[in-house]
Q: What sequence folds into this?
């Protein structure tokens, strides 16, 4: 028996017309556990219609009451964190501790959004001319939509919806069809927190639903997180229809290790950032740039750690790394190991030979040395537990390699030299930088975003840029006559 996974419209679960469906798997067993209904254009139109009505009412609700809903939602997320993590693990496969981390990072964004009365404050300039004052305010856009990837099915929606709703919009979520269930639990918690029906909706679907959201004239803005080709498509199609679009794409993140680095610390970081969540993170480290003579020591230290990683069902205590999202994706990732070998790289640890469960979409941690920038294993976003090592003679060579890469989401440097770190942060052309920190995901009160093919548009996600993205600025210039000329008795002597 597989469950039916439908939409959330006007505050209730709605089974779709089911003209088209998609299977949902437990990647740890390989078994189909659900069937998600994929929305038609007409179904998306219905969702938008209910969101339009809800947005008009929600933006008029006093800020203090909107803020109270955010606080209640925060409490509910906190209380249900383990339950949400379990739903994520059941459909994504990441280990429970990792799923709990995902929920915690999403929750940070709700906490940020509880400060919305402060975040929406405008400026005021008194008496810029005789009797003239100027002030600014920010107003919501109306209906906004979020299209999210499979790899963070709870966190990425929370990156978007907390701010979008706090500032007065209605938000429509189109989750990944690969792990759609947690979005529906988030919807129930929003409702329990007191959010009026229609302000948060979930429409399940694929390209058809996304295209319907892009085409709909009453959807004012699109937030997208996913792969680069789709990010580019959504940015081009959305902006061509005069929508606001922020579209975050794929990644190929480099970690530079200088010869003076603490090799054990760097190896621990490379293992956790390369193989955590089976490498299915947009901030995963994919390439280690080993500078000077650190290469042999570093490769040896990473290889020594890999057998200690327990690969298995994420619900079982002790598992460090779960499966990949689908069998097809696992096979594609495994294909890169052969590609690297054929291109002349050295496969130090081959994840296909690891001790893996019989069922499910598993692949062990893989380490490939002597990779160069011409190889597909270097050029492509693999999105799996495959770590490549590129040897470089100097710091400048490492910098050049990173700056020549198409992607520019995150990067990290490991060194004991403050001067090198300072030069790195200044000269590297990447959006998020870690210094002795392998996965530098900004806290919720900064904003998240890469450069180049990792971001289309100029607005980063969440934090202050999220507040700006989901609001429009207004500046009011107002003139009131001088009190001396007032016809109303102001109750004090008119001396001027
Ligand atoms: P994806 O691009 O395949 O899908 C993302 C979303 O787009 C899903 O909701 C999907 O249903 C929809 N979609 C897929 N094909 C579409 C099409 N042809 N037209 C319209 N919509 C379509 O990405 P994914 O496989 O779910 O996620 C992994 C990718 O996301 C990786 O490339 C990863 O780097 C990236 N990612 C980036 C960030 C970031 O912040 N930059 C964060 C997480 C994931």
A:
């Amino acid at each position: 028996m597989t469950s039916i996974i439908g939409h959330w419209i006007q505050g209730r679960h709605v089974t779709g017309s089911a003209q088209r469906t998609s299977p949902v798997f437990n990647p740890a067993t390989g078994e189909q556990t659900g069937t998600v209904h994929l929305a038609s254009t007409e179904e998306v139109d219905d969702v938008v219609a209910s969101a339009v009505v809800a947005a008009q009412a929600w933006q008029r609700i006093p800020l203090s009451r909107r803020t109270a809903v955010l606080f209640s939602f925060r409490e509910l997320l906190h209380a249900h964190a383990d339950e949400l993590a379990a739903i994520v693990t059941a459909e994504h496969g990441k280990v429970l501790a990792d799923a709990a981390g995902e929920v915690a990072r999403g929750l940070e964004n709700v906490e940020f959004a509880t400060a919305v009365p402060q975040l929406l404050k405008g400026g005021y300039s008194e008496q810029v001319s005789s009797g003239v004052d100027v002030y600014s305010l920010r107003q919501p856009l109306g209906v906004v939509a979020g299209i999210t990837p499979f790899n963070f099915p709870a966190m990425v929606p929370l990156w978007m919806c907390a701010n979008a709703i706090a500032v007065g919009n209605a938000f429509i979520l189109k989750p990944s069809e690969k792990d759609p269930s947690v979005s529906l639990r988030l919807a129930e918690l929003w409702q329990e927190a007191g959010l009026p029906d229609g302000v948060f909706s979930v429409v399940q679907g694929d390209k058809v639903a996304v295209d319907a959201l892009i085409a709909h004239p009453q959807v004012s803005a699109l937030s997208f997180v996913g792969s680069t080709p789709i990010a580019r498509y959504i940015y081009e199609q959305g902006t061509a229809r005069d929508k606001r679009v922020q579209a975050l794409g794929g990644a190929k993140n480099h970690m530079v290790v200088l010869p003076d680095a603490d090799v054990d610390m760097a190896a621990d970081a490379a293992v956790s950032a390369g193989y955590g969540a089976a490498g299915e993170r947009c901030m995963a480290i994919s390439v280690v740039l080993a500078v000077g003579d650190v290469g042999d020591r570093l490769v040896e230290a990473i290889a020594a750690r890999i057998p200690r990683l327990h690969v298995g069902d994420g619900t079982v205590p002790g598992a460090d790394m779960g499966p990949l999202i689908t069998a097809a994706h696992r096979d594609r990732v495994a294909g890169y190991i052969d590609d690297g070998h054929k291109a002349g790289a050295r496969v130090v640890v081959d994840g296909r030979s690891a001790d893996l469960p019989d069922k499910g979409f598993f692949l062990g941690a893989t380490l490939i040395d002597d990779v160069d920038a011409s190889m597909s294993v270097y050029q492509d976003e693999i999105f799996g537990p495959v770590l490549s090592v590129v040897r470089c003679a100097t710091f400048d060579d490492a910098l050049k390699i990173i700056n020549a890469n198409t992607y520019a989401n995150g990067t990290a440097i490991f060194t004991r030299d403050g001067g090198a770190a300072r030069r790195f942060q200044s000269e590297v052309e990447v959006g998020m930088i870690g210094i002795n920190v392998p996965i530098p995901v900004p806290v919720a009160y900064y904003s998240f975003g890469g450069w180049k093919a990792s971001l289309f548009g100029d607005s980063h996600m969440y934090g202050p840029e999220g507040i700006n993205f989901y609001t429009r600025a207004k500046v009011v210039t107002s003139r009131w006559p001088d009190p001396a000329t007032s016809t109303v008795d102001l109750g004090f002597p008119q001396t001027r």
